[in-house]
């Protein structure tokens, strides 16, 4: 997994690329920490270029969402590809995490 940032005054978008698997846990945590250092209160993960998410990746989204609730910032996911969106639907992730197509 690779990532880059696109920031606005109130939102940091994390543009993710590749696959999100168990091995990406340290990188994912660093990405969230780095985004929070900007001082924004909203982080959106843009999955336009993410081809695959395994069950550990789904868990990372849940941990980030829980952390956001505990620390008082907003967490959302945008633009999942159809294959990734299907995984989200099977796991009912959309009932816990805000997922948009924008």
From TrEMBL:
<comment type="similarity">
    <text>Belongs to the anti-sigma-factor antagonist family.</text>
</comment>
<protein>
    <recommendedName>
        <fullName>Anti-sigma factor antagonist</fullName>
    </recommendedName>
</protein>
<dbReference type="InterPro" id="IPR003658">
    <property type="entry name" value="Anti-sigma_ant"/>
</dbReference>
<dbReference type="InterPro" id="IPR002645">
    <property type="entry name" value="STAS_dom"/>
</dbReference>
<dbReference type="Pfam" id="PF13466">
    <property type="entry name" value="STAS_2"/>
</dbReference>
<feature type="domain" description="STAS">
    <location>
        <begin position="16"/>
        <end position="102"/>
    </location>
</feature>
<dbReference type="InterPro" id="IPR036513">
    <property type="entry name" value="STAS_dom_sf"/>
</dbReference>
<dbReference type="InterPro" id="IPR058548">
    <property type="entry name" value="MlaB-like_STAS"/>
</dbReference>
